[in-house]
Recover the amino acids of this structure.
């Protein structure tokens, strides 16, 4: 088949997804083109809900069959509203489909009317390429999924935990080092051994193991030990203190990810005060970058069962993170605080992802850009209920078989 994947040919760089997909398709005998008028199928990789805006534009530009893939494709009832097919899962079985009929008939391809979908979980790790995304920067796929399975995490509940081999990762590191490129091993968690210069690790692993990297990225997620324990990350305040001390010994910068919207604001105020105390006793020599996102209740996750409990009063905005930045700067010159998208934007993201009807997705897409300027917090909150998107049934993925079924989590 002749595939057009225009979003990547229009880009100034080639991302990891494109590199992996292009390698798999070409290895299976397919052609790739940037010409949507001269192809059999148009591929569209949607990794995030914001990609949906480009999908709508693509639909208006072509009557060629559009197939949506990428992590967003697990929301296949939403993705199909502006496409013809949705491939759920990894690319390697898709590449084995010789024509459109084979694609449509495959159990991992959703088309309207198909009752069941099986996510494709096969990854041919030996065929994964090093993806150069900038002149001196490259990615290598080290793993997918997560054995920790936090209750809020979409990736953990839509991808079986798999890892690349240490030998292949070490080989990728040697290639990057020889070519003097910054290598990032893309994985949701630490799998043992050194990563590239940027590593994703659980904080509890970081404080236990030596590292050889310049940047460590960890998910702290919630404000209190109790919330972290409830959601699946058993990170203690003492672990955080140990990490601050260890980063000075290791000479690394750290980026910590947090999720507001679940804990009361008072708990976050105490968390920031705690960090101030830690930094006053052990001033960090490299950057600690505190990143904040606001909680999105996503399908497949156990937390989705509580989607109707969403509380706008627990969400934060840039005015809060600026105040925290000023507070932390009194104790450290090497700190950054990233602001989350406002509640209105989170509501729009949920609305698009959970849409199963064209009227629903069109409403939420119309508000997605500049959501804060188009909706008040109260309007966004009420629209989640009035548009019916919170009635979208919960989906569950069987990690062993890939089968996707409707049904609430038991816990």
């Amino acid at each position: 088949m002749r595939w057009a994947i225009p979003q990547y040919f229009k880009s100034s760089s080639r991302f990891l997804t494109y590199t992996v997909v292009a390698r798999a398709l070409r290895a299976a005998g397919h052609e790739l083109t940037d010409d949507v008028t001269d192809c059999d199928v148009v591929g569209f990789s949607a990794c995030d809900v914001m990609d949906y805006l480009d999908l709508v534009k693509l639909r208006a530009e072509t009557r060629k069959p559009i197939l949506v893939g990428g992590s967003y494709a697990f929301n296949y009832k939403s993705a199909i509203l502006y496409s013809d097919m949705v491939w759920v899962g990894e690319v390697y079985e898709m590449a084995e489909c010789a024509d459109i009929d084979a694609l449509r008939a495959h159990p991992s391809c959703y088309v309207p009317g198909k009752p069941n979908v099986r996510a494709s979980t096969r990854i041919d790790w030996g065929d994964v390429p090093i993806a150069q995304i900038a002149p001196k920067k490259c990615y290598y796929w080290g793993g997918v999924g997560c054995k920790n399975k936090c209750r809020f995490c979409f990736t953990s509940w839509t991808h079986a935990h798999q890892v690349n081999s240490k030998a292949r990762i070490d080989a990728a590191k040697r290639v990057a080092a020889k070519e003097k490129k910054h290598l990032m091993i893309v994985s949701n968690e630490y799998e043992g051994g050194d990563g590239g210069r940027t590593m994703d690790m659980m904080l509890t692993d970081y404080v236990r193991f030596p590292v050889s990297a310049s940047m460590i990225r960890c998910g702290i997620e919630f404000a209190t030990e109790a919330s972290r324990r409830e959601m699946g990350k058993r990170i203690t305040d003492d672990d955080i203190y140990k990490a601050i001390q260890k980063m000075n010994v290791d000479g690394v910068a750290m980026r910590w990810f947090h999720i507001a919207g679940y804990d009361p604001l008072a708990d976050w105020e105490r968390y920031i005060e705690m960090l101030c105390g830690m930094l006053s006793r052990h001033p960090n020599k490299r950057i600690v970058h505190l990143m904040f996102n606001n909680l999105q209740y996503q399908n497949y996750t156990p937390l989705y069962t509580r989607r109707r409990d969403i509380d706008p009063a627990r969400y934060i905005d840039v005015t809060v993170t600026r105040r925290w930045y000023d507070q932390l700067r009194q104790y450290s010159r090497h700190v950054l605080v990233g602001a989350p998208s406002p509640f209105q934007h989170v509501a729009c993201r949920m609305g698009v992802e959970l849409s199963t009807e064209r009227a629903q997705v069109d409403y939420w897409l119309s508000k997605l850009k500049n959501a804060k300027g188009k909706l008040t917090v109260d309007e966004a909150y009420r629209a989640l209920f009035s548009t019916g998107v919170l009635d979208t049934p919960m989906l569950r993925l069987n990690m062993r078989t890939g089968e996707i079924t409707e049904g609430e989590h038991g816990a």
Observations:
- The longest strand covers residues 253-260.
- The domain at 130-340 is CATH 3.20.20 (TIM Barrel).
- The mean pLDDT is 93.
- The radius of gyration is 22 Å.
